[in-house]
Recover the amino acids of this structure.
C-alpha cells in the first residue's frame, strides 16, 4: 500500500475533490444547490451511501465474481439509497420534499458507482472507508460552497444548515439577483467556480 | 459451470439481504412517515381552515379513516363550541402540472363548507400556483352548501376563476365537486365515527 | 389530442430534461465535443428511454403496486434499466450490426445516465397513464437530444476560439450550457 490512510482520506478533500477535479455526479450539484441547506443535506445523504457502499463492496470484493460486479454494485448502492430515502422521509420530511427526485437519483450518481468500481473493489476495508468518507465530505463541501454562492447572490439570505435564516444583504441596497437560483445560474455559477479552482495549482 | 453457480448464488444472496433489510426498515419507519406527511403536507392547510376550532392544537391527531373500495380517506374532526361538528378531508383533481389536492372542511349539521384550501400543487410557478398562495379562489366556497356541483363563471357557474390560470381554477372547482360526492356517499359512516369520537 | 400536444411541448421545451430539470448532465458534458457523438448519444437515449419508460411503468403498475412493494421502486427500476441496456446491446450486436456500430459505445453509458432513470420516476410521480408515459419518455428523450446537439454545435465553435486557460474545457462548457439554459427559460409559461 503506497498511500497512508490519511492520504486516502484527504485526497477527496482537495486533490480529487468532486465535482471539481473529478467531473462526475453533476446532476445533484446543479439541481439541489439553490440553498446551502439543500446542498449539505444532499451531500450528507450521498456521503452515507458512498461510505456504506464502499464498505460493503470492499468486504465482499473476494466473493463478487468479476462478470456480474456491476449488477452487484448497483444492488448494494440501491439498497442504501432506499434506506436513506425511508429514513429521511421519517425524520426530515421537509428536506425530503425539497430534494425530491434527487434522492433516488443518488443510485445513478457516477461518483458512487465510480468509487465502488475504481477503488473499493480493489482495496481493503479501512482504506475504502477512508476513501468513501473523504470523497463524500469533499462532495458535501462543494455542494455547500455552490449553494452558498447561489443563495447569497440570488436571495440575499444565508441559511445555516438546519438552523436559522440570516439576511446578509438587505433589501434597501441589494436587489436579489434571482437569476442565480434559477437553472442558468447553476451552470454559470459552477463554471465560474471551476475556473477559480483551475487558477489554484493542484499541487 | 462452477463460476455460473457462484454468480447466481452471490446475486441471489445479495438481493435477499437487501430485500430483507429494506422490509425491516420500512416497517419500522412506516408510522413515522405517515405522521410526517400529515404534519407537513396537509397540516398547514388543515390548521388554517380550522383556525377557529377549539381543538386547533390537536386537530392532526383527531382523525379517523374510512375505506371506500380502493381509496382510503383521512378525516379530521373540528370541534366548535365543545362539540365535534365539522370534518375536513382531501379530494383531488387533475390540474395543469399534475394532481391538485384540495382540503375541504364541512359543517356536519348544515352541510355548508367552513373553508377550502389547496394542499399539493404542481402548477406553473407564478401562474397556477397562485391557487395555493392567494386565497381568493378558495375563499369563494366558504359558506356554500357542499352537496352540489360547482363550475367556474366562464362555464355558467358562480365561482370566479383566477385570471390567467383557468385550468388550475377549474381543477380546484372539480376537486371540490368530487369532495361533495365523497361526502354524500360516506356521510352515514362519517356521522357514526364522529359520534364515537364525541362519546 | 390537445392534451398530448401540450405534454410533448412541455417535455421537450419548457421542462427540458437537461437545462431545466438538471438530469443527465454527465453525458451532456462528456459526449458533446463533436456533433457526431452527440447525435449517436441522442439516438441511443431516445431508443432506450422509450423502452425503459414503458417497461418500468408496467413493472410499477402490475408488480410493485399490487404487492405493495413501492418502497423497492429504486432497486427495481435501476435493475430493469441495467438489464434492458444489456439486452439491447446483445440484440443489436447480433441482429442489426449497422445500428450497433453507431450506438454500441454509448449504450453502457446509459445505465448510469440519470435522465433515463429520472424520467421513469417522473412518469410514476406524475401518475401518467401508459400512453402518456410513453409519450413523455419519448419527448423528454427528444428534448435531451435537441439540447445535446445544439450544445455540441456551439462547442465545436468554441474549440476555435481563444479561451483563457483557467476557463478552458469543462468550465467554459458549463458557462455555455448556462447561456443555453437562459435561452430555454424563454419557453417558460408557454403552456
Amino acid at each position: 500500500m503506497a498511500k497512508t490512510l490519511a492520504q486516502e482520506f484527504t485526497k477527496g478533500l482537495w486533490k480529487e475533490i468532486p465535482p471539481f477535479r473529478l467531473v462526475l455526479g453533476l446532476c445533484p450539484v446543479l439541481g439541489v444547490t439553490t440553498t446551502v441547506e439543500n446542498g449539505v443535506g444532499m451531500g450528507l445523504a450521498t456521503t452515507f451511501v458512498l461510505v456504506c457502499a464502499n464498505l460493503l463492496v470492499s468486504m465482499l470484493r473476494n466473493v463478487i465474481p468479476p462478470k456480474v460486479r456491476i449488477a452487484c454494485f448497483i444492488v448494494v448502492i440501491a439498497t442504501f439509497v432506499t434506506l436513506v430515502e425511508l429514513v429521511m422521509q421519517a425524520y426530515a420530511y421537509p428536506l425530503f420534499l425539497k430534494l425530491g427526485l434527487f434522492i433516488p437519483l443518488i443510485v445513478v450518481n457516477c461518483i458512487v458507482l465510480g468509487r465502488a468500481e475504481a477503488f473499493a473493489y480493489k482495496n481493503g476495508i479501512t482504506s475504502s472507508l477512508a476513501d468513501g468518507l473523504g470523497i463524500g465530505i469533499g462532495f458535501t463541501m462543494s455542494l455547500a460552497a455552490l449553494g452558498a454562492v447561489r443563495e447569497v447572490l440570488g436571495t440575499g439570505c444565508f441559511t445555516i444548515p438546519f438552523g436559522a435564516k440570516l439576511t446578509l444583504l438587505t433589501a434597501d441596497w441589494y436587489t436579489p439577483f434571482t437569476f442565480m437560483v434559477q437553472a442558468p445560474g447553476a451552470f454559470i455559477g459552477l463554471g465560474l467556480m471551476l475556473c477559480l479552482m483551475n487558477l489554484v495549482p493542484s499541487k | 459451470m462452477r463460476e455460473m453457480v457462484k454468480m447466481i448464488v452471490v446475486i441471489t444472496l445479495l438481493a435477499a439481504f437487501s430485500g430483507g433489510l429494506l422490509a425491516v426498515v420500512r416497517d419500522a419507519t412506516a408510522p413515522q412517515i405517515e405522521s410526517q406527511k400529515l404534519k407537513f403536507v396537509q397540516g398547514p392547510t388543515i390548521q388554517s381552515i380550522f383556525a377557529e376550532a377549539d381543538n386547533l392544537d390537536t386537530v392532526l391527531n383527531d382523525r379517523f379513516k374510512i375505506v371506500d373500495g380502493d381509496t382510503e380517506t383521512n378525516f379530521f374532526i373540528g370541534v366548535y363550541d365543545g362539540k365535534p361538528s365539522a370534518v375536513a378531508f382531501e379530494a383531488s383533481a387533475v390540474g395543469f402540472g399534475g394532481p391538485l389536492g384540495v382540503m375541504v372542511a364541512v359543517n356536519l349539521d348544515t352541510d355548508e363548507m367552513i373553508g377550502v384550501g389547496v394542499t399539493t400543487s404542481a402548477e406553473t410557478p407564478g401562474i397556477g400556483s397562485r391557487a395555493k398562495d392567494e386565497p381568493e379562489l378558495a375563499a369563494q366556497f366558504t359558506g356554500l352548501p357542499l352537496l352540489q356541483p360547482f363550475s367556474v363563471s366562464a362555464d355558467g357557474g358562480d365561482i370566479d376563476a383566477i385570471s390567467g390560470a383557468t385550468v388550475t381554477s377549474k381543477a380546484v372547482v372539480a376537486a371540490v365537486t368530487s369532495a361533495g360526492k365523497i361526502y354524500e356517499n360516506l356521510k352515514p359512516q362519517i356521522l357514526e365515527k364522529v359520534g364515537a369520537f364525541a362519546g | 389530442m390537445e392534451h398530448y400536444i401540450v405534454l410533448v411541448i412541455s417535455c421537450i421545451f419548457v421542462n427540458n430534461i437537461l437545462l431545466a430539470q438538471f438530469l443527465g448532465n454527465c453525458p451532456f458534458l462528456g459526449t458533446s465535443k463533436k456533433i457526431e457523438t452527440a447525435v449517436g448519444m441522442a439516438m441511443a437515449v431516445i431508443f432506450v428511454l422509450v423502452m425503459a419508460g414503458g417497461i418500468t411503468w408496467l413493472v410499477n403498475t402490475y408488480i410493485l403496486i399490487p404487492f405493495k412493494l413501492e418502497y423497492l421502486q429504486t432497486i427495481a427500476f435501476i435493475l430493469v434499466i441495467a438489464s434492458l441496456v444489456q439486452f439491447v446491446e446483445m440484440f443489436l450486436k447480433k441482429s442489426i450490426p449497422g445500428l450497433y456500430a453507431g450506438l454500441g459505445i454509448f449504450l453502457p453509458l446509459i445505465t448510469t445516465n440519470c435522465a433515463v432513470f429520472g424520467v421513469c420516476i417522473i412518469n410514476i410521480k406524475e401518475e401518467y397513464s401508459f400512453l402518456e408515459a410513453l409519450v413523455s419518455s419519448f419527448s423528454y428523450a427528444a428534448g435531451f437530444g435537441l439540447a445535446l446537439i445544439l450544445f455540441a454545435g456551439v462547442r465545436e465553435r468554441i474549440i476555435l476560439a481563444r479561451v483563457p486557460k483557467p476557463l478552458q474545457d469543462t468550465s467554459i462548457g458549463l458557462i455555455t450550457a448556462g447561456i443555453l439554459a437562459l435561452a430555454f427559460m424563454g419557453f417558460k409559461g408557454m403552456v
Remarks:
- Strands of chain A lie at 157-159, 165-167.
- The radius of gyration of chain A is 18 Å.
